[in-house]
Design goal:
This protein is α/β, with parallel strands linked by helices. It contains 13 helices and 13 strands. The two termini are 18 Å apart.
Length: 336
Amino acid sequence: MTVYARNAYTDPSVTNHRGVELVRLPQINTKHLEAISHTALALADVLRRRSYDLVHIHATGPALLSFLPRLSRLPTVATIQGLDYRREKWGPAATGVLKAAARAAVTFPTETIVVSRELQRHCREEYGRETTYIPNGVHLDQEGVVAVPVESLMPQRFVLFLGRLVPEKHVHTLISAFREVETDYQLVIAGPSSHSSGYVDELRSLAAADPRVQMVGPKYDGEKAWLLKNAAMFVQPSSIEGLPIALLEALAGGRYPIVSDIPENLEPVTLPTGERLGGSVPVGSKSRLADAIAAAIELPDREAVGQRLRDHVEVTYNWSQIASQTECVYRLALGA
């Protein structure tokens, strides 16, 4: 197995991980060309090598080029992680290209995987195509990661958002809502910019008006593990998702969730019985979000709710099960 990785995000000293070869290739570091430029180089190398049985492309943007391996009779699988054309950061031209890429992702590949039931429904209704549902996975405990406390934060005394700082995550709504909550809890905003420096500046301005709001930047490894283990609750107020990995990680840590009521956020907090746990609010509603946070702070069984969701995640989003399901799709694509 070979994984093609972008230079900007990977350690050049790592060329192999548990038997998986890592090939680092460059990319054009702009919002519009980063993913597609790297994918083009990766597929060119794949076709040059002529040594692979199958190629697996992740996300709709890169899947725009999935016709290339198919033209070479190379079985191809694409995974749709979300409907990227709906993201607020794109202009009309980029949105049009990404709409075409979404259609390509279910048209060109031999098999297509989607990470949520909502995406499966959308592909069936919008494109008339059947896809295979295999969710993202999560580890309950990160092997070898030692939790490292984040300075100035007290365990169980802060509300956490963790993710990319882009408009569709509605962090601005969260900060505005938190200002209406009477509490000595802190609000922690952890995450990197994603070609969205103007939006991050807007968030910093909002945060400056409330000393309880802490923007701590991106956190990884030990500090990230500590945040997910010690937050009083995790808030995901986004307007667009595929299947949010940050939410899965928070649930794996037993955190009480408050999410916007889009299907992709509600899916992970709904048990097989249909019972929905945690809080949910309409997208963009500051007052409803403020009420939900205030209610959760006073909730006596918050930890019990978190534990039930942790048990649910352990069964439903188990990596071993997901790996087996993915292998079945590979065999199907290979005609085996």
